[in-house]
Amino acid sequence: MPSIKPDRVLGDLYALRQIGAYKTGVHRPTFSPEDVASRQWLVDRMTEAGLDARIDGIGNVLGSSRAPGRKMLSGSHIETQNHAGWLDGALGVIYALEAARALRDDPATRDLGVDVIAFCDEEGHFGSFLGSRSFIGEVTEADIDNARDRTHGKPMRKALAEAGYAGRPRLTMDPVRYAGYFEAHIEQGSSLETGKLKIGVVTAIVGLWDYRITATGQQNHAGTTMMWERRDAGLALLRLLGAIDQRFPQVAGPRSVWTIGRIAFAPGEPSIIPGEAKALFQFRDADPLVLQRLEAALYQLVEDANRTGSCTITVENVRHGTPAVMDERFQQALDDATSRRAPGLSVRMPSGAGHDAQYIVRKLPAAMMFVPSIGGISHHWSENTSDEDIVLGAQVFADAIASVLKAG
Amino acid sequence: MPSIKPDRVLGDLYALRQIGAYKTGVHRPTFSPEDVASRQWLVDRMTEAGLDARIDGIGNVLGSSRAPGRKMLSGSHIETQNHAGWLDGALGVIYALEAARALRDDPATRDLGVDVIAFCDEEGHFGSFLGSRSFIGEVTEADIDNARDRTHGKPMRKALAEAGYAGRPRLTMDPVRYAGYFEAHIEQGSSLETGKLKIGVVTAIVGLWDYRITATGQQNHAGTTMMWERRDAGLALLRLLGAIDQRFPQVAGPRSVWTIGRIAFAPGEPSIIPGEAKALFQFRDADPLVLQRLEAALYQLVEDANRTGSCTITVENVRHGTPAVMDERFQQALDDATSRRAPGLSVRMPSGAGHDAQYIVRKLPAAMMFVPSIGGISHHWSENTSDEDIVLGAQVFADAIASVLKAG
Q: Which residue among A44, A106, B196, B399 is buried most deeply as judged by most CB within 10 Å?
């Protein structure tokens, strides 16, 4: 088995952390000067590692191995959420790079190739997984024409031109080249830490189903309109959301999650009965049957509300994400590698968050591996993982890739 | 008893409706060119009616009677909400003007004086009842310095200067001059229409108690944070509001109203568990004991929520409005006048909405009279009252003022 070099892994992660440093985290949104600098930094590291490195027309950074035979594709993303953590994305890219280097360094694995990739904009500053979706051929030029940064509205074309990537071809994956895809990531939850475990072996990336709920009533004066004559859209929505809060635990799976992320009343004045009220509602689960059961429960509750209430409630589905199942052999390879390096300290678990792997799995068998997040913190500058856990994860990750490639 | 002239009342109201006409309503916000024109139009009508008319330094329009003895103060406001109704405010001003004219026209009431007033900005474009509060001496120069239009942010000083009112003295009421205050208004609700009644005799203007409710939890990732480990501020707030919805009917009075006018989650993203959630909550009642009971119930529910929940909820009271009780003799005069003109068609009722009378009653005995609103619509351009009801109301109003002044 290859041996990773702890100082090389940590050294790269610390160097990357300096580019756009914000408190103990990083502010490196897609195509910011810091993000562009970090992509060039990555090209230089890839080149040092003997990979043929390039940045394509959407900002994907790919380092291609010159090794013979089928390669493993591995990576994650390098940009961050605004004012967010130093490891979210970066960890998976550096693990992939270290796996490539460790396999090359060991005579026993020298002929096993790892292509390293940093998919652009996994964090969704300009869209939804544009880099990985481009790499599997699911992004059109028109998609890019229409994309704008969600924070400051800059058109993606302008940002690409400023970054120096405009006019470059976009790379598309050749599935025949690859044995599969491996991605590592911080857990973004506290299951590993709480269970004193070191490695999460992802079984599936959950499906995410998003809904817009709208209640329509009658806007009116909050002083002169008696309770019995009101058609209060805000109250109708609150009652539906209360019913969901009661009902969902009865129909959910053990790891289902559901969230009301936004709510707004119109006109939103203290002395006006809301005539319209809106909420964003989502749920996630790794099991398609559970997702269907949750949706059926939602529609039933809305139907009940419309039958008994004085307002009209409509529900619009805006996303029906399919759960992405990870390859069983790859999961076993991760479990086996953990057994060698940290016996008994891996656990199989779904990923509640989305990752580029959920798109790559459409073309290749894929695996995801998690390392612990201190306090389960994510998408915040205080996100962190201990050096010890980072080093252990890098070793397990490289081992698993080597064993899969060796098995052919 | 004096006889009002239907054509004069309706003619004035229709003329006023032309100034800032919007669909079938009016857009005449405070100190807009249309509002300033309407104030000058009113000065001209007052002058024609033999009143000494002037506009003061805050935009109050006062027409003073030259009759001997104690006068009745009567009026309402002349500006409108944005894109709102043609009678809200205007009706009370024209009723007062018509009462002054009708009493002057009749030899039996010629010596009974009515001072007509249009209080500035009852609709709160720049603040809260600035005109009537100025008239009773409760607005400082600093209050005006700090006031800005809520729609476009223009400083009140600038608006006053543009209107030509800057530098004028502000008029302050001399209570000794007056026997009391009478204000007429559209009902802004549907009680009269539903009950086929013509005149609402207001017993009290309700007290309005306003609260800001804030729930604080822990912002987190909506995919990776399991339900049992969440501290979801949005959900905590929704559960409290649900508990209020259950509890308030048990402790409310028969005409209590309570309203959640605004709600917001932070950061308000579909995939982020809200770390903070806020709501604006208010209730109104004419009975101080009921108001206290409702507040006690609110605080008890918050205490229960904080004892059992994982978030922290705080409540801040931002208004404890005292119910404004109307004068019993004046109420009787309105009932008696209705008995003569439309027997059996008056009803005593609280006013759920605020009016200038709630401030004037601090210095003078006061009365408020309502006429029906078609469909109960208010603060919308489609607000309306039939000509027949307008004319009947004007007559009852003038009769009641005459009888109170005659009784000395």
A: B399
Q: Look at chain A and count its residues.
A: 408
Q: B275, B297, B320 — which closes off a domain?
A: B320
Taking a C-beta distance cutoff of 8 angstroms, is the pair B143, B127 a contact? Answer: yes
The verdict on A191 touching B (C-beta cutoff 8 Å) is yes
How many helices and strands (H and E) does chain A possess?
12, 17
* B376–chain A nearest CA distance, Å: 8
Q: Which structural domain, as residue segments, surrounds residue B351?
A: 6-206+323-406
Q: How far off is chain A from B138, nearest CA to CA, in Å?
A: 23
Give the alpha-carbon dihedral of B55, B60, B61, B64, to 10 degrees.
-100
Rounded CA gap, B402 and A403, in Å? 102
- Decide if B299 is inside a domain: yes
The nearest CA of chain B is from the CA of A235 a distance in Å of 8
As a whole number of angstroms, the distance between CA A318 and CA B290 comes to 45
Same domain, A240 and A270: yes
Name the pairing type of β-strands A71-77 and B21-22: unpaired
B118 and B70 inside one domain? yes
Helices (H), B19-63: 33-48
Taking a C-beta distance cutoff of 8 angstroms, is the pair B41, B26 a contact?
A: no
- pLDDT tens-digit profile, chain A (408 residues): 899 999 999 999 999 999 999 999 999 999 999 999 999 999 999 999 999 999 999 999 999 999 999 999 999 999 999 999 999 999 999 999 999 999 999 999 999 999 999 999 999 999 999 999 999 999 999 999 999 999 999 999 999 999 999 999 999 999 999 999 999 999 999 999 999 999 999 999 999 999 999 999 999 899 999 999 899 999 999 999 999 999 999 999 999 999 999 999 999 989 999 999 999 999 999 999 999 999 999 999 999 999 999 999 999 999 999 999 999 999 999 999 999 999 999 999 999 999 999 999 999 999 999 999 999 988 889 999 999 999 999 999 999 999 999 998
Task: Please check whether residue A69 touches B, CB under 8 A.
Answer: no
Q: Is residue B1 part of a domain?
A: no
Let me know whether A79 and A177 are in one domain: yes
B218 contact A CB<8A: no
Whether B321 and chain A come into contact, CB under 8 Å, resolves to no
Q: Which of B320, B336, B371 is the last residue of a domain?
A: B320
How many interface pairs between A and B have CB atoms less than 8 angstroms apart?
Answer: 177
Total number of domains constituting chain A: 2
B110 in the same domain as B42: yes
| Domain CATH for B152 | 3.40.630.10
Same domain, B332 and B270: no
Q: Do A260 and B238 touch (CB under 8 A)?
A: yes
**Is residue A331 domain-resident?**
yes
* C-alpha to C-alpha distances, A255 to A323, A329, B113, B181, B210, nearest whole angstrom: 13, 23, 77, 66, 40
Residues A244 and A197 in one domain: no
* Same-domain check for residues A128 and A172: yes
Whether residue A111 is found in the same domain as residue A247: no
Two tokens, residue B319: 């208004």
Tell me if A327 is assigned to some domain.
yes
